[in-house]
Design goal:
The chain has 298 residues and is an all-alpha fold. The protein is built from 16 helices and no strands. It has helices at residues 2-22, 26-55, 60-67, 70-103, 109-116, 118-121, 124-135, 142-147, 156-167, 169-182, 185-192, 197-208, 210-226, 229-235, 245-254, 258-297. The radius of gyration is 25 Å and the shape is globular. The two termini are 32 Å apart.
């Protein structure tokens, strides 16, 4: 009996110590919550409310007129085109790079990981200047492109290339730690059972990473639609032709057309909120699947 009592006291002391280590007095908790809410209000909620307020300041009719303006529609169309082209390419690259890094051992793996992280270290403006240096009129391939009547800089191809550069790490960086944590056991089991590489990819790997993949796709799409620096350098700011939505907002704001600028900005803000909602849903769905898997294993 004494040994049982000692064991219970020891267990109780451990619980008390754990509780003390992971809890704070009420005033500390409420202070941290207040500081967090104040920070979010100053830098997120109030600016977001200001965008929609300014967009609707002249009425709903002026708001719609700003969005259906030909230059605005051209900017929206170009933004969608750039995202629609860059997203599938980044998807293929991200899955292939993550699969190679997480599932295989080869020489140069660390170099590949470093190259994937390169856009995080390089300023988007520098990335745009690099493309100007390569494909511009005075660039390495500029004369050849002019002779063959091809245009990259100040045209859609340059905008797409710049968008791809700044967005390609997101899917790969989301999948690499996930696939490394999952290990190679299921793929090796499929290989032993006679499955080929494509069957392993479609029936084992992709179903296991579906939520992480969707999360990476959403982040990539959000960055592609909101990119400013690199696209600004290679676009040439040709109104109605090479302006994306962020560039169109800048032009309208510089022209003191605040209502139209905030109207287009509100559309970008709405897309950001939609992205946040999808992100939260995917995180909830992924955690739900984990709980279900744990219950099945038990």
């Amino acid at each position: 009996m004494s040994a049982t009592i000692v064991s219970q006291l020891h267990s109780y002391n451990k619980k008390v110590a754990r509780s003390r280590a992971t809890s704070e007095p009420a005033w500390v908790r409420w202070s941290l919550i207040a500081v967090s809410l104040l920070f979010l209000s100053l830098f997120l909620f109030i600016p977001l409310a200001a965008v929609f307020t300014e967009a609707l300041r002249k009425g709903f009719g002026a708001y719609i007129a700003a969005l259906v303006d030909p230059d605005a529609l051209s900017a929206i169309k170009l933004t969608v085109i750039a995202a629609a082209i860059s997203l599938p390419l980044n998807l293929v690259f991200g899955v292939a790079a993550a699969w190679a890094i997480a599932k295989f051992d080869f020489r140069g793996k660390s170099i590949l990981i470093t190259l994937i992280d390169l856009p995080f270290a390089v300023s988007p403006v520098i990335a745009g200047l690099i493309y100007v240096l390569i494909f511009g009129m005075q660039g390495w391939f500029g004369e050849w492109l002019i002779d063959h009547d091809h245009k990259v800089i100040f045209a859609i191809p340059g905008i797409v290339l710049a968008t791809i550069f700044v967005t390609f790490p997101f899917i790969a960086r989301e999948l690499i730690p996930l696939m490394q944590a999952q290990g190679k056991e299921e793929e090796e089991a499929g290989l032993v059972l006679g499955a080929n590489g494509w069957q392993i990819l479609w029936r084992i790997t992709l179903p296991n990473i579906k939520w992480g993949l969707l999360y990476g796709v959403i982040l990539t799409n959000a960055r592609a639609m909101g990119e400013f620096g690199a696209v600004s350098v290679v676009s040439g700011h040709i109104r109605g032709l090479t302006n994306t939505m962020p560039l169109h907002v800048e032009i309208l704001y510089n022209e003191y057309n605040y209502a139209a600028a905030f109207a287009v900005a509100s559309l970008l803000a709405f897309l950001a909120l939609l992205t946040l909602a999808l992100k939260s849903f995917i995180e909830w769905q992924a955690s739900r699947d984990v709980i279900i898997d744990e219950q099945i294993e038990e």
